C-alpha cells in the first residue's frame, strides 16, 4: 500500500491531505473522501483511509483547516469549526476542493465517488450531498446533521447513510428527526442507524482523551457502523 | 432442503408452524424463530424461513392464531391481533411455545437462538426479548414497538435490531423514541435502522394487495434490512 501527503488549494489556503491506495492495483477504482473530526486531520481519519485502501479503494483524507493543522484542545477546535461553518458556501467549497482533488487522480474513477466523515467530517459529507456533488453515496459517523441550507427537492445525487449514537449529546433526537424530514422532503434515498448506549465520537479509540462525558469510543458501534458502510459501498458501487 | 408442517401446543390451542432446514447438514445449528405478519402464517414468513434454511439455519415460522389460520382481510386480522394482544402474558406465551418447540428440535443448538418477525411478528420477537427469553438476538421488521410491560433493567438477554420505515404510519417517531428510551433504561444492546421513503410492510412483495396507503413493498429497504439481519446474525452467532 502507498500513502503520501497530497497538497491542494482552496483559493489562497493550501490544504494538506493524506492519500492512501494500493499501488499494486491497476485501473481506475472508486474514490472515497474521508473528512476528519473537528480536531483536524489526524491519526483517526488517516487510519480509516488506510483501511479503505487495503480494501481496494483510493482514499483521500481531507484537510479541513489548511497546512494539515491539528488542534488538541476541544474548545480551540470548536472555535475553528465555528469560523469554518459561519459561511455555508465556504464550508461546502472546502469539501469540494478535496473531492475535486480526489476525482482528478489518475487511479480514481470519477464516476464512482463517495464521501465519509466523522463528527464535523460527517457534516462535510452531508453538505457535499446537499450541494448536489456527483457522489454515489455519503456516510456520516457521529456527524452534525444541522444545516443552514436544507437540501432542495431533486438536487441530491448521493444516497445517504447516517450512523449516529442514540445518546450523543451533540446530535439530539430533534436533530435526527429534522434531518429525516429534510431528506424525505427532498426525495433523497436515505437511511439512518441509531446505536443504543452510544455517545459522540464512537468510532475514535482516542475519544476518551478529550475527558468529557458524552464523548467516548464504543467498539461495538464502531465495528457495526464500519460494516454497515461496507455493505452500503457494495450497493452503491455494484 | 426439507420443509414440513410442525404442530405444537399452547394449552388447548394447536399451533401449526412451518419448519425449514437443510437435511444434508449434520450437527446442531442456530435456530431462528420467524413470526409472521398480522394476517397469520402465510407465504411471506414461510419464504423467509426457507431462505434462512438455505443459509444453514434451522428456521421455524410460527403460527400466531392456531391451526395455521390466515386472514385475508386487514380489518379482520386487526380484530384478531387485538384479541391476541389484550393479555400481554398470553401474547408472550404464544411466542414462547414456538421458541420452545424450536429449541427442542434435535438439529437445533438451544444455546444459539434468535427470533425475527414482521409487523405483529416483530412485536412477538420484541416481547420475547422483554420477557427475558434465552435468545442471542431478535430482529423486528416493521414491527409494532409498543408494550404494556416495558423491559426491566438487566432482564433482556437478546441483542436487539429494529428495522423500521421512516414513513410507517403504524410506527410513528414517538413510538420509535419510546422504544429507544425503554431499551436504554433497561441497559439493552440495541440498534435501530430507519429507512427513508419507506412505509409499513416494506419486506412483503404482496403488501400492495391490502390496497391501503401506508402499506407497501420497498425492494431497497427489504434487501438492506435482510443484509443488516445477516450481519447481525454473523455477530451474535460468532
Short descriptors:
35% helix, 238 residues, 24% strand, homodimer, 8-stranded mixed beta sheet, 6 helices
Structural class estimated from helices and strands of chain A: alpha/beta
Rg of chain A over CA atoms, rounded to whole Å, is 16 Å
Sheet having the most strands of chain A: 8 strands, mixed
Kindly state the mean pLDDT of chain A as a whole number? 97
**What are the secondary-structure elements of chain A, in order, as H or E?**
EEEHEHHEHEEHEH
The helix tally of chain A amounts to 6
In brief:
The structure is a homodimer of 238-residue chains. The first copy, chain A, is α/β, with parallel strands linked by helices and 238 residues long. Chain A is built from six helices and eight strands, in the order βββαβααβαββαβα.
Question: What would your notes on this structure say?
Answer:
2 copies of one chain form a homodimer. Chain A is an alpha/beta fold and 238 residues long. Chain A has helices at residues 43-54, 74-85, 88-104, 120-130, 173-185, 219-236; strands at residues 2-10, 13-21, 29-35, 58-61, 108-118, 137-141, 159-165, 190-195. The first copy, chain A, has an 8-stranded mixed beta sheet, sandwiched between helices. In chain A, helix 3 (88-104) packs across helix 4 (120-130). The longest helix of chain A is centred in the last third of the chain and has 18 residues, at 219-236. Chains A and B meet through helix 5, strand 8 and helix 6 of A and helix 5, strand 8 and helix 6 of B. Strand 8 of chain A pairs antiparallel with strand 8 of chain B.
